[in-house]
TrEMBL record:
The chain crosses the membrane at residues 1001-1023. Residues 172-207 are annotated as: Disordered. HEAT repeats lie at residues 880-918. One of its GO terms (cellular component) is recycling endosome. It comes from Oncorhynchus tshawytscha (Chinook salmon). This is LisH domain-containing protein.
C-alpha cells in the first residue's frame, strides 16, 4: 500500500514503504502538513507482533517547500538519527495508545483499537475511551473511509475540511464550558470572512463566552479613552460580569490585545498560537531528478565505511542500527543537507555538527546553513525554551518568570495543583520582588476558593512559614493578608482570617500581639459575613494560645464580650468552643482566672440586675452566664492542679478509668478537663486524691477551692435570689449553670459545700414567707434553681427522695402561708420538660391530693394543669384523671373549682375518646348540678377555661358542649340580680368569644351563642363592648349589620 502525498505546485510523491497508521500531528506554516508515518513489519500481518514492535516506529520527513521550482528533497539525517536512537527501546502497546489519546490522534487510536480487536488483543484503555460518548460530544469533521491513510496537502487550508486535520477538539474554559479551539489557518479565516461579508445572514449567533470577552474589551476601550460615563452605563447593563478581572470571562486563554490593536492587525495574518512540529517528507525517486532511495542495508554499510575512513569516534552508536531509508545524491556518498529541512529540537543541531565537524565548510556557510532551522528565540517563550537551566538557581529564576504566564491558563478547578510549584519557587527565589509576585499569585490563585482549596493554600502557607522563618513571614506573607482584608468576596476574606491563625505560631511575638491581633479585631467588628467572623474568632483563640504580653489581657476580654454579643449562632458557638478555653488557659497562667476574669463577669451580671429592675435584659444575662458556664472546666482544673495532694500523684501502676458520666459532655475538646490537665491518666489520679481530700482531710490550705466555696457560691446564690422567678429563660440558664458546676466538682463537693449553703437560706418554715408582700426567699427563683440545678445533679434513690421532700415542703409552706405559687410553678415547668421526672412530680402532687389542708389540695389541683401538657396519655389516664376526680368531689368548693383548669387542659391536649368523655361528664356535672347554680366563682372559672381551651379543643366537643353551655351561662346571667356579678360574667363571656371568634363554627350555633352574649352585654349596659362584639361578628360572617350606635345595638 502506498501513501500518496500531494501539494499544490509540487509533484505528487508516494512512500514505497507500506503505511499502516499515518498519524497527523500539527499544522505548520504556509499550508504545510506535518505527520508521522507508521511502518509495518515485513514478516508479520500483526502490526503489534514482536517483529513489528522491533521495527523503528517512524521516519520523520518534512517539506517546507512553497515554490514549484524545487528540484528535489534529500534525506533528513537528523530525523534518521533520532529514529535509530529509538530503536533500542521497545515501546509497549499501552504507552502508544496513551500517547495517541493524549495528543488527540483519535482516528489513529480508533484504527489502532480496531486492529487490536481483530488480532484478539483488546486494550482496556482504548476500550474505555471509545465506549464513553462524553469524549466525542463536540468533535466534528469525522474522516470517512480511506482518508485514514491518505493525507491531502493544499495551499488553501479550506480544502482540508474532510481530512484528518479538520478535527476540532473542544477545550475547556474556566467555568467548565467547552469552547471550540478554532483550529483553522489564516487562509481559512480570510475565506470565511469573505463569505460572511457577502452573506451576513450565515453568521453564527454570538456565544456567551464570546459576548463576555467582547464586553470586557469594549469596557477596557471606553475607560482608556475617557468615556467614563459610557463605561459606567455599560457596566451597569452587564452587572453579571466583573470587568476588573479577565479570569471572570471564563476563557482559558490569556487576555487578548485591546480593541485598537485588534483593529490595526485585522488586515494582517495573526500568528498561530499553536506550537508546530515540522517533519520530513519522503518522495519517490522518479519524482526528483538525480535522486534515488537508498535502502537500509546500503546506508548502514556507507555509515560504517565512513566511520572507518574518518576515524570519528563521537557519532552516536545508535545511528548504525535500524536506520530508515534516506535520500542520497548520485554523485556523492555524503548525505545532502538541503535548505528545505526543518529542525526544531536543539539536539538536532548537535547531530548536524557531529556530521559536519570534519567537513571543510566555512563558519559563515555553516551559520547561513543553520539559519534555515526554524527556531523561535525572539519571543518570550522561545527565549525561555532555548535557555535551559543548568542549576537550581536558574530553575527558580525560570519558574519565577514562567509561572505568572502559566497560572491564568490553568482551569480554576485545577489551580490548586500549582500550589506546590508556586510555594517552592517563592521559598527559593533570590529576588524579593519576584517572591512577592508569586505569593500574590498564591492568594489570588482562585477567585472564590472552597473549603478544600483554602485548606491546600493554608497548608502551603504553613509550610512556607516553617521553611523561611518569622522574618520573611512578616515581610512577605502578612502583606498579602492585609491586602485582602476588605476583599469583596467573603471566601477571600475567610482565607485571610484562617491564615492569620495558621501563621500565628510562626510570627514574631511582637507582630502576633499587635498587627495580627489588630487585623482580626477589625475583621470581627466590621465583616458582615458570619463564616468570616467565625474564622476570626477561631484565629483569635490561636493567638491567645501563643500570646505572652500581659498587657493584652484587657483587649482579649473585650474581644470575648464582643464575640459573645454577636448575632450569629456560629460565632457564639465558636467563642464557647475555642476562644474562651484558650483565653482561660492564658488567664490561668497569668493567675487572673479567679481574681479577675470570673469576678468581672459576675460584676457585669450584678450590674445588669440593678439596671433591670423594670425589665431585665435577658439576652445579656444569657451572654454573661454562658461565658461563666464555659469557664467551669478551667476553674475545676485550677482547683485540682493547685490542691495540697498534687505532690502525691502517682501515675505508676493500675489507674482506674474515669466513669463516662463523671463529667458533663464537653462542648469541644478544649473544654475536656483531661485535655486541660494533660491526659486521662493524670486526671484519674487527681480525681481519686480529690475525692479523698474532700471526704477525709478537708479544705485547709486549699486556697483555690476555698475561693469557690467562700466567694463564688455565696455571690451566685445572692444573684439567684434577685432574679425574677417569672422569667423562665433566666431560671433555665441558672439551673443549667448550677447543674454543670455541681456535676463537674463532684457529688461529695455538692453534698458538703453546695447543698448546705442553699438549705441555710431556704429555711422551710412559714416565718420564711411574707404572705403580704410575697418577698420571702421561697417565692424567689432560688427555689426552682435549687430544685432543678442542684437536686437533680445525681439520680440515685436518696437524691430523688430529697427532691420529692423539698418540693412537698415548698408546696405545703407556700399554700399554708397564702404566698404566690410562682416559684413552685417554675419548678414544675422546668422539671416537667424532662420525662424522667414525671413520675416524681405526680408523687409530689398525690401528696397534695391527700393532704389534710384544703389549701394544699387546691395547690395540688392547680399544679396538675402545668403537668398535664407534658405527660403522656397513659399517665394522664392512670394517674392524673383519677386524682382530679378525687379532688372534684372534695368537700371544699374551692378545691372543686381548682380542678376545672386541669380538666380543661386535658380536653385541649388528650385525644382518647374514653378519657375525653370522662372529663366531659365531670364538667357537665359542674354546669348542670343545681348546687352549683349560684356559684359565681365556678361559673367564672368555667367560662375562663372554655375561652382558653376552646380554640384548640376537638371541634365536636367545642360545638356540642362548649358553645351551648356558654349560651346557657349567658342566659342565666341575664337574670342575675347582682350587678357586679353580671358585669364579671358578661366581661368573661366577651373574652371567651374573642378567643373563639377565629374558629370555624356553624352559623346556627354561632347565632344562638352570640345572641345570648349580646343580650348579656346589653343587660349590664356595656355598650362599647357590644359594639366591638357586633363588629367582630359581622366581619366573621357578614350576616348582620354593624351596630354603630347604642340605639341600633338595642334594636339589634
Amino acid at each position: 500500500m502506498l501513501s500518496t502525498v500531494k501539494a499544490p505546485g509540487l509533484p505528487s510523491f508516494s512512500l514505497k514503504t507500506p503505511v499502516s497508521n499515518p498519524i497527523p500531528l500539527l499544522h505548520g506554516e504556509g499550508g504545510q502538513l506535518a505527520f508521522y508515518v507508521g511502518t509495518q513489519g515485513p514478516s508479520s500481518n500483526n502490526p503489534f507482533s514482536p517483529q513489528a514492535d522491533a521495527e523503528p516506529p517512524a521516519l520523520l520527513v518534512s517539506s517546507t517547500r512553497t515554490s514549484p521550482s524545487v528540484e528535489g528533497i534529500s534525506v533528513s539525517v537528523a530525523a534518521a538519527a533520532m529514529t535509530v536512537a529509538l530503536a533500542e527501546t521497545r515501546v509497549s502497546v499501552d504507552v502508544i495508545a496513551a500517547q495517541l489519546i493524549r495528543d488527540h490522534y483519535i482516528l489513529t487510536a480508533l484504527e489502532f483499537h480496531t486492529e487490536l480487536l481483530e488480532s484478539g488483543r483488546e486494550l482496556p484503555r482504548l476500550r474505555d475511551y471509545f465506549s464513553n460518548p462524553g469524549n466525542f460530544e463536540r468533535q466534528t469533521g469525522t474522516p470517512q473511509g480511506d482518508e485514514v491513510n491518505t493525507v491531502i496537502i493544499t495551499g488553501d487550508r479550506a480544502g482540508s475540511i474532510s481530512t484528518l486535520d479538520s478535527l476540532d477538539f473542544a477545550r475547556y474554559s474556566d467555568d467548565g464550558n467547552r469552547e471550540s479551539d478554532e483550529r483553522v489557518a489564516e487562509s481559512d479565516t480570510q475565506e470565511r470572512n469573505k463569505n460572511y461579508s457577502s452573506h451576513p445572514e450565515t453568521q453564527e449567533p454570538i456565544r456567551p463566552l464570546e459576548k463576555r470577552a467582547l464586553n470586557f474589551l469594549v469596557n477596557e476601550y471606553l475607560l482608556k479613552n475617557e468615556y467614563k460615563l459610557s463605561a459606567i452605563t455599560f457596566s451597569d447593563e452587564n452587572d453579571d460580569q466583573d470587568f476588573e478581572l479577565w479570569d471572570d470571562v471564563g476563557l482559558n486563554i490569556p487576555k487578548p490585545p485591546d480593541l485598537l490593536q485588534i483593529y490595526r492587525n485585522c488586515g494582517s495574518a495573526l500568528p498561530s498560537p499553536r506550537n508546530t512540529v515540522d517533519v520530513a517528507v519522503g518522495v519517490e525517486s522518479g519524482e526528483l531528478t538525480g535522486n534515488y532511495i537508498t535502502q537500509k542495508s546500503d546506508l548502514l554499510q556507507q555509515v560504517s565505511e565512513r566511520e572507518k575512513n574518518s576515524g570519528c569516534d563521537h557519532v552516536c552508536p545508535a545511528a548504525t542500527h535500524n536506520m530508515e531509508p534516506v535520500v542520497h545524491n548520485k554523485q556523492s556518498d555524503c548525505p545532502s543537507i538541503l535548505t528545505g529541512m526543518s529542525i526544531l529540537i536543539p539536539v538536532h543541531s548537535h547531530i548536524f555538527l557531529s556530521f559536519l565537524v570534519h567537513r571543510k565548510l566555512s563558519p559563515a556557510f555553516q551559520q547561513a546553513l543553520l539559519s534555515f532551522c526554524k527556531m523561535s528565540a525572539d519571543s518570550r517563550l522561545g527565549a525561555e525554551v532555548s535557555r535551559i537551566a543548568d542549576n537550581e538557581e536558574s530553575v527558580m529564576l525560570m519558574l519565577g518568570r514562567c509561572l505568572p504566564h502559566i497560572v491564568p491558563n490553568v482551569l480554576l478547578a485545577k489551580r490548586e495543583e500549582l500550589i506546590p510549584l508556586i510555594l517552592c519557587t517563592a521559598c527559593l527565589h533570590p529576588e524579593p520582588k519576584e517572591r512577592d509576585q508569586l505569593l500574590h499569585i498564591l492568594f489570588n490563585l482562585i477567585k472564590r476558593p472552597d473549603d478544600e482549596q483554602r485548606q491546600m493554600i493554608l497548608t502551603g502557607c504553613v509550610a512556607f512559614a516553617r521553611h523561611v522563618g518569622p522574618t520573611r513571614v512578616e515581610a512577605e506573607l502578612l502583606p498579602q493578608c492585609w491586602e485582602q482584608i476588605n476583599h469583596k468576596y467573603p471566601e477571600r476574606r475567610l482565607l485571610v482570617a484562617e491564615a492569620c491563625g495558621a501563621l500565628a505560631p510562626y510570627l514574631p511575638k511582637e507582630i502576633r500581639s499587635s498587627l495580627v491581633l489588630s487585623m482580626l479585631q477589625q475583621m470581627l467588628a466590621e465583616d458582615k459575613a458570619d463564616m468570616v467572623r467565625e474564622a476570626v474568632v477561631k484565629s483569635l483563640a490561636i493567638i491567645m494560645g501563643y500570646i505572652d504580653d500581659p498587657d493584652k489581657y484587657s483587649q482579649g476580654f473585650e474581644l470575648m464580650l464582643l464575640s459573645l454579643g454577636d448575632p450569629s449562632e456560629r460565632v457564639v458557638s465558636a467563642i464557647h468552643q475555642v476562644f474562651i478555653p484558650a483565653f482561660a488557659a492564658w488567664t490561668t497562667e497569668l493567675g487572673n482566672l479567679q481574681t479577675t476574669l470570673i469576678p468581672s463577669l459576675l460584676a457585669r451580671i450584678e450590674k445588669l440586675l440593678k439596671q433591670g429592675e423594670h425589665g431585665l435584659d435577658e439576652h445579656k444575662l444569657h451572654m454573661f452566664l454562658s461565658a461563666l458556664q464555659s469557664l467551669i472546666p478551667p476553674l475545676f482544673s485550677v482547683v485540682i492542679q493547685n490542691a495540697p495532694f498534687t505532690h502525691r500523684v502517682n501515675l505508676q501502676g493500675d489507674i482506674p478509668p474515669i466513669e463516662v458520666t463523671r463529667f458533663p459532655r464537653p462542648a469541644s475538646p478544649l473544654q475536656d478537663i483531661a485535655t486541660i490537665v494533660g491526659s486521662r491518666e493524670t486526671l484519674s489520679a487527681l480525681l481519686i486524691l480529690y475525692d479523698y481530700q474532700l471526704e477525709h482531710e478537708g479544705t485547709t490550705g486549699w486556697d483555690s477551692l476555698l475561693w469557690v466555696v467562700n466567694q463564688l457560691l455565696p455571690q451566685l446564690i445572692d444573684i439567684v435570689g434577685r432574679i425574677n422567678v417569672a422569667s423562665t429563660t433566666c431560671v433555665h440558664e441558672f439551673s443549667r449553670f448550677f447543674w454543670r458546676l455541681c456535676r463537674t466538682f463532684g457529688k461529695i463537693f455538692t453534698n458538703t459545700k453546695v447543698k448546705p449553703q442553699f438549705q441555710e437560706i431556704l429555711r422551710l418554715s412559714e416565718e420564711n414567707v411574707d404572705a403580704l408582700t410575697g418577698n420571702g426567699i421561697l417565692t424567689k427563683a432560688t427555689v426552682p434553681i435549687y430544685a432543678t440545678g442542684v437536686l437533680t445533679c445525681y439520680n440515685q434513690d436518696e437524691d430523688r427522695k430529697l427532691l420529692v421532700g423539698f418540693l412537698e415542703d415548698v408546696m405545703t409552706t407556700l399554700s399554708l402561708s397564702h404566698a404566690p405559687l410562682d416559684s413552685l410553678k417554675a419548678s414544675f415547668v422546668e422539671l416537667g420538660a424532662n420525662p424522667v421526672y414525671h413520675e416524681l412530680l405526680l408523687t409530689v402532687l398525690w401528696y397534695g391530693v391527700v393532704h389534710t389542708s384544703a389549701l394544699v389540695r387546691c395547690t395540688a389541683a392547680r399544679m396538675f394543669e402545668l403537668l398535664v401538657k407534658g405527660v403522656n396519655e397513659t399517665l394522664v389516664a392512670q394517674r392524673v384523671v383519677p386524682a382530679l376526680i378525687t379532688l372534684s368531689s372534695d368537700p371544699e368548693i374551692s378545691v372543686r373549682i381548682s380542678t376545672i383548669p386541669a380538666f380543661g387542659t386535658i380536653m385541649e391536649t388528650v385525644t382518647q375518646k374514653e378519657l375525653l368523655e370522662r372529663v366531659k361528664m365531670q364538667l357537665a356535672s359542674f354546669l348542670e348540678d343545681p348546687q352549683y347554680q349560684d356559684q359565681h366563682s365556678l361559673h367564672m372559672e368555667i367560662i375562663r377555661t372554655f375561652g382558653r381551651v376552646g380554640p384548640n379543643a376537638e371541634p365536636r366537643f367545642r360545638d356540642e358542649f362548649v358553645l351551648p353551655h356558654l349560651h346557657k351561662l349567658a342566659l342565666g346571667n341575664n337574670v342575675q340580680a347582682t350587678e357586679s356579678k353580671r358585669i364579671d360574667i358578661a366581661t368573661q363571656l366577651f373574652e371567651a368569644y374573642s378567643a373563639l371568634s377565629c374558629c370555624c363554627i356553624l352559623h346556627p350555633t354561632l347565632t344562638c351563642v352570640f345572641l345570648g352574649v349580646f343580650v348579656s352585654v346589653l343587660a349590664v349596659g356595656v355598650v362599647s363592648a357590644g359594639r366591638q362584639l357586633g363588629l367582630a361578628f359581622q366581619q366573621s360572617d357578614g350576616l348582620v349589620p354593624r351596630p354603630d350606635t347604642p340605639i341600633q345595638l338595642a334594636r339589634w
